[in-house]
Write a structure and sequence with these properties.
16 strands, alpha+beta, about 400 residues, homodimer, 12 helices, five-stranded antiparallel β-sheet, nine-stranded mixed β-sheet
């Protein structure tokens, strides 16, 4: 971990390795060296996903372990890297201990999971499942409009020839930090991930009327800020009404003119709704939109609602989940079945092959931050469950 | 009006004449020419307030009419200018019609009422009442820290010698646009201003914890945005609890990190409370602060509250108010007694001499905007009430 974390390492801690940057290339080069040293059969596909396989793939499709080496800006050293490096270590352990497996075992480093420099996120696994064409991926412009994905991929030397359409797998397993506080707060060692939550992002524009704070009687106001506050309040109330599986977040609020003595005339806010149950998520969306329209009408404020993102929940493979659970139990680790609140490559892989994930605790639930941390003890336990599950799958 | 509005006139309508700018100097120079043409005795005091007096001041202290020629950025042509120009016209009418007055009548153009380029606002009248010393005023830095008040005042040639301490007045009258929607919405022609509301500004810093919107269960959140929304909601509720005289505005909200999928970790918001009754205003402040502390504690969010501004309500002179009301009634104009929601030079003058104000309707209640507008008919009525009241006072 520590050698990889030096690539793109920040002076105050943390790591920054944006997709297809100089740092991403360095990290890929190091992984390539390590995979070759182990004697893996190395390949790179059309969108830059990297593979290293061990064993005879004539008998059966490989069991893949993996994640991603790219990070967000000012990110941590665990998000993504953990799954790639623990996967590599699992394969190394199998090789060094001459463990006999009937199926090949492979590693994948997915291109651009974070989606910070180029969107969409989970791009490499999305392309692998056929959710976006290679041609289209190559033409994607960077968020700052300065770079083209295909050109940058060629520039760093990772435009491969392995065809996406020829990919075959027995299973896909991803070890990842939880990125949330649940395992830590419940003092558990392993999260057995059953599914990825459905996600719904909406942005809401409210247009009222800017007016003098002193001279405008309350009943003549069209206060876009008050309507926004009511929606924020309601988003919280919604989670009580719908129940434990529902989370709701208003993360972004922008007020105009944003002056101390002027009634807000215009507000933009975003609402992030997630649920493991798609019917409940649809119910939450409908309730929120109905409420927002109603409260805006009462205040005389115009409202415009745009859907930005909508992903259905992705269930993972039942027998794979049971296998992960069995490994954790066998090793005597405390664990719980839980959903993933964040998106991961595994949710794309679930469309191609049986897939699931293993979580380990994140200190204070923090990720996408230089403060991201998981202890060496927890990492070891997660790696052991990954190895144990992989062996059972490949035996 | 139209000639003055050309100074600092904006291409798309509206006026920008920031205090002690080139445009402020031009406006002052034009006023100086007009006052001299009328034969007024002209003077400028130590902080740049301009005076023009007519009549023998040995008999009695003058009746002053006035307001200010400075504007906010992207302002209108009525706020301030109306009171100065209508005051000048009233004096001209007295002179041209040989109206015999026992007391002198004078005009004042106050320095820096708006407080945009240099703070505090109402600076000229505040200095005149002794609320801030001349030395201190001279050293005030501009908001952008690039200029010093005293230097800029000298540069435009309006550092006068008339001593603030020698000021004497029989009364002060200020005609002004309402800057609110009350007169227009009630279809009234004149506002007889009884007082200026008390004002209380607080800024509130909320520090919770930034967390992933998908992976952080609701009960583990410390959401600064949710607490802010609760305070905004409560500010509205407060106006219902306390009653019609109370207004409350949250005009400024700043969220960090302000990302769609991150629980807000930090919010700054401001609360503007105003009431004509100081006891009610104190009650509103206490209730708001108590509520804010309580809701922050429930959410586990740290709270810091700073008082930025606190003015007590300023009552105007009863007999002067009655005189204005009598003038409006005599002229057959519809009117109502009302408070001023905004601050004005008249509230400073009230500490030195009997003072009051006359309001005329603002179209859509808009001011501090290039859309600021009052009709020529309403302006004429306001000017007539100003003249009528001034004559009664000086007779």
């Amino acid at each position: 971990m520590s050698q990889m974390a030096k690539i793109g390492g920040l002076s105050g801690g943390g790591v920054e390795r944006l997709t297809l940057s100089k740092e991403d290339k360095e990290a890929r080069d190091l992984l390539m060296i390590w995979m070759r040293e182990l004697g893996l059969k190395v390949s790179v596909d059309q969108v830059g996903n990297m593979y290293g396989e061990w064993g005879n793939s004539k008998n059966a499709a490989p069991v893949y372990l993996g994640s991603h080496l790219d990070t967000v800006g000012n990110g941590g050293e665990y998000d993504g890297s953990l799954g790639v490096l623990a996967g590599l270590e699992a394969i190394q352990t199998c090789i060094e201990n001459n463990i006999e497996l009937s199926k090949p075992i492979g590693l994948i480093n997915f291109t651009n999971e974070e989606g910070v420099r180029f969107t969409p996120d989970m791009m490499g696994s999305l392309a692998l499942k056929g959710g976006i064409g290679v041609e289209k991926v190559m033409k994607i412009k960077s968020v700052d409009k300065q770079f083209i994905f295909g050109e940058e991929l060629e520039k760093i030397g990772y435009k491969g020839t392995r065809k996406l359409s020829e990919f075959k797998a027995t299973a896909y397993l991803e070890l990842h930090i939880e990125q949330g506080p649940v395992l830590e707060s419940e003092q558990l060692e392993i999260g057995v991930v059953e599914m990825v939550q459905g996600i719904s992002w909406n942005e809401i524009y409210l247009t009222g009327q800017s007016n003098h704070a002193g001279t405008t009687p309350m009943h003549l106001r069209k206060d876009a800020g008050y309507v926004a506050a009511s929606i924020i309040q309601y988003a919280r109330q919604l989670t009580h009404e719908i129940g434990d599986r529902q989370v709701a977040t208003v993360g972004m609020v922008e007020v105009e003119p944003n002056l101390i003595n002027v009634v807000p005339g215009r507000v933009r806010l975003t609402v992030d709704l997630r649920n493991t149950d798609d019917l409940q998520l649809m119910e939450a969306e409908k309730k929120l939109i109905d409420f927002a329209k109603k409260i805006a009408a009462v205040e005389g404020v115009e409202i415009e609602i745009n859907s930005l993102v909508r992903f259905q929940p992705v269930p993972f493979d039942d027998s794979l989940i049971a296998l992960v659970e069995g490994s954790a139990k066998e090793m005597g680790y405390s664990y719980k079945r839980m959903p993933s609140g964040a998106g991961h490559d595994a949710q794309m892989m679930a469309a191609i092959c049986p897939s699931t994930m293993i979580f380990i605790p994140s200190k204070n639930g923090i990720s996408h931050s230089v403060k991201e941390y998981s202890s060496p003890e927890d990492i070891e336990k997660g790696a052991n469950v990954l190895l144990g599950t992989a062996i059972r799958l490949a035996e």
